[in-house]
Design a protein that fits this description.
This protein has 12 helices and 4 strands; from the N terminus they run H-E-H-H-E-H-H-E-H-H-E-H-H-H-H-H. The protein has 253 residues and is α+β, with helices and mostly antiparallel strands. Strands 2-3-1-4 form a 4-stranded antiparallel sheet, with helices on both faces.
Length: 253
Amino acid sequence: MWDIDKKLSNHIDSSYSGQDRDKRGTINMTEDVLVFLKPDAVIRRYIGARTIKEFLDAGFKIGYFGEAYPSKEFIETKHYAQHKGEFFYDWLVDYVTSSHLLVFILTGDDVICEVRKLLDATITENADCNSIRGRYGIFGGINVAHASDSAENGKRELNIWKKDVIKIERNYDYTERADAYINKYINFSMVDTIRYREISKQLMNEKINEKEAKYLFVNLLSKESDLNREIISRFAEIMIRNALSRKEKVVEQ
Ligand code: IDP
Ligand code: MG
């Protein structure tokens, strides 16, 4: 009994002090971050639903959620402009434009840092095995989701996306839309991510050729997706280029 009372009183205290702080406005770390599911997590429906669920379960509020179809030019010259000249830039632009994206704006205390922690390292093999990228990233730079990496980039990205790509409707319940997505896909069939990693490595090590890898990738992606064959086939080619480019990197070293 005492325990229950104590828990209840702690809960009331903490929720009161939270409101109090907000009213006084003295401690306010609330910020917004632009996140989008990249084509691997859009195509692999369960992975997308799981990722969105983990963001919501972490307690962030959703300020926007919807499908987005940014142009190649927008991704090249605005969103990923800072990566121009990197060896992976052309591939990255093709990867991110290989299907539509699922964009959301999350709001919460330290949300930029917290979302980056949930995703973890950029390169899948370097990400903690319990993180989202560590569990579901396919290989190399195919890593489930984008999230702004600093407050400064966060502001820049929100501005360009709001200006050119997304339209936020006032009073629209985006949380309900995100919940509907989760409910629709959280029990969708799923293929163990390890299979994609094995096939990528087999291709890298010349145990299979590109045609065989494409057949296997298309077959697996089709089990995880309700998107059309054209998108799946395009993304399979992205995975092939990704594996082959990592092979070149290994050979160069
Ligand atoms: P971030 O997404 O973790 O912020 P960035 O350095 O901003 O990482 O790079 C943008 C995206 O470019 C990455 O998410 C990944 O998809 C891709 N990328 C970055 N570095 C590499 C690389 O060394 N090889 C392949 N792809 C890369
Ligand atoms: Mg970045």
